[in-house]
Hints:
Chain A is mainly alpha-helical. Chain A has helices at 10-22, 26-40, 47-75, 101-124, 131-150, 154-172, 179-210, 215-218, 221-225, 229-246, 255-258, 264-273, 278-285, 287-291, 294-315, 321-341, 345-372, 390-404, 410-425, 427-452, 460-465, 471-486, 501-510, 524-551, 564-570, 575-621, 629-649; strands at residues 78-88, 91-99. A two-stranded antiparallel ribbon of chain A has the order 1-2. By secondary structure, chain B is mostly helical. Chain B has a single domain, classed as Orthogonal Bundle (Helix Hairpins), CATH 1.10.287.3510. The A-B interface holds A 622, 625-630, 633-634, 637 and B 25, 28-29, 32, 37, 98-99, 101-106.
Amino acid sequence: MLPASAVVPSKFRLTQDMFMEKLIWLIPILPLLGFFILGLGASKLSKGLAGIVGCATILIAFALSLGLAGSVFASGKLEQTLFNWVSSGAWTVDFGFLVDPLSLIMMLVITGVGALIHIYSTGYMHDDERHNYFFAYLNLFVFFMLLLVMSNNYLLLFAGWEGVGLCSYLLIGFWFKVDEYNEAAKKAFVMNRIGDLGFLLGLFLILVNFGTLNYDGVFDSTVLSQISVGTLTVITLLFIVGAAGKSAQIPLYTWLPDAMAGPTPVSALIHAATMVTAGIYLTIRSHALFDLAPISMEVLTYLGLATSIFAATIGLKQNDIKKVLAYSTVSQLGLMFFALGMGAYVAAFFHLVTHAFFKALLFLGAGSVIHGLGGEQDIRKMGALRKVLPITYIVFLIGTLAIAGIPPFAGFVSKDQILLAAYEKSPLLFALGVFASLLTVFYMFRMFFLVFYGQNRVNHDTLHHAHESPLSMTLPLGILAGLSVIGGILNWPSLMGGGDWLQHTLSGVLGTPEGAEHAHAISASTEWTLMAIVVALVVVVIGLAYSIYVNRNTVPVEDEAEEGFGRVLSHKYFVDELYAALFVKPTQAISEWFGRIVDPKILDGAINGIGQSILTMGSVLKNIQQGAVGLYLFVFAVGIIILLALQILF
Amino acid sequence: MENIFNVVPLEHFVLLSLALFCIGMVGVLLRRNMIVVFMSIELMLNAVNLLAVAFSAHRGDSSGQVFVFFVMVVAAAEVALGLAILVMIYRNVKSVDINALKQLKW
């Protein structure tokens, strides 16, 4: 694939590129500007104008990112330092941007998918009274996310990291009049704080050991070679804690399914396509550290695999259309960490990109269903919607096929590369990875069939009002569907006549020598065989789901009617209850004790005691003031005589 | 010019001012009429002035005399203010007893 600007005459290209490089700072600033315009003028702007501002800032940022593509892919990286941000003793941090292929592709995903979701939101949020604030928050989110991926040091990355957490909180609790949604927002915030603490401690360790937070300084191989493996292991493990919080991995994943309380475009943008992939971005960005810490890599592998299977099994029994997708996201993120742990950074990143396409598509599709049915989210109350929502049906089918991994959809290519990397490591890991992805296939098609096939279980009134979504919503769906189909060409394997483009592009970032990617430990025939096995299994599982949910018209029972293991699954392994018993209840008990004993008795007692004792002292000492001037004069004279006498005597 | 200390020795000045100061202090402490207390204070001030002038002349250093001028100026201001307050007190309580306003306390 040639960079777009390669066709322009080289002399012109040079000046154009230099011009573009000067504009790097505009890319994050534009959404921030949009945030200020929308946030400050929320009550004055009309909904239409607010939608235009919100979409335009992101679209321009996308266009600018696209304009950088030529020079970034040609030269490897661009840097721009705006100003000196923090200067303390021996170390300084600049407010600087680094745009290399890794961050550029992230930027394109963020602004590209972000722009589509903004356009979609103009339709989806049209009747919401806080429509303008919604766009303000979304723009702020895009700003922080861009900061996160464009920074050239860990501190600025952390600023973005915290910022996206804040926006996530604001948007999950967007409909704050519902208590339950507020609880979900708080939960997301607290769970992220736990992860952020780990990340922050990792940053402190980096600062202590490397003396700098700039990528240049930390990833310098001569510096790295002087750091002990133990230190690097601790740093990377702390990073994993941070990544587990942000990217919803065991044990901090519980906030993501609850985060579905936010409006559906938020789920698509923040909780599927971009923010939750920050942990994967962080790991790839810090690959130099992870490469030297084998224990951390093992932890990543098993953590990712465990999360993937765990979340997928929960997904089997969920009946809320968004909850299914949420657990699917957790599961897919687990798969990405699984790949990272095996050193298959490119496969993980590739899956991140394709996942952003098809998961955003699925969420927006789900949003379209919810919108069409006037807010209904329970898949047991849907069914046979393919005639009512024909466009949504088609794009949803594409998304489901993509996540299931049917060739040639995007999900097939990326997932295949992860599984291949697993096979190189050990056939057992491969088998477990396949198991996780088959679970995904099953629950995705279970949901798909329950929503679009079978009997119509929508209640009569809702069905009467059911309608296909407006163009502003179906257009982004169509584009994302297109991307979900062809997204695979980004890293189409050479085995199937592709160019491994992503692999080549990222080789500079990952420091892998050119051509190393072809040195597979397994032969081409094995690769073909594995691919065929996986695809065959996927088709079998789809058939299974079809026979259960279409031929036999099975409808999931009520939550209370679940028995045995199904009950455990529908209650999400009782993890929330476990956390409540282990952490929430004890904390509340301690807080209650502090509130009842320590605060009123000890703290208030000490402070009131000081005040009371001074009052008592005053009421005694005030008797000296008698109001008799003669007495004052007498005491005055006697005092001076005593002082003089003392001076003479001693 | 003949030195004054050949006529009146320094000790006499000191003793005189001491006597004046003590009379003044006893007046301040024992008398209850505010006007008398005031006059006693003036006596004390002038005892000090006398002493300062005497020492100044004895040491041949004029700064003591300069200070006396300041004391006199300040004393004049104090008297003007003090007598005004006294008049106001008298108008209010019909008394110049020093303990007439015993209520001025906490």
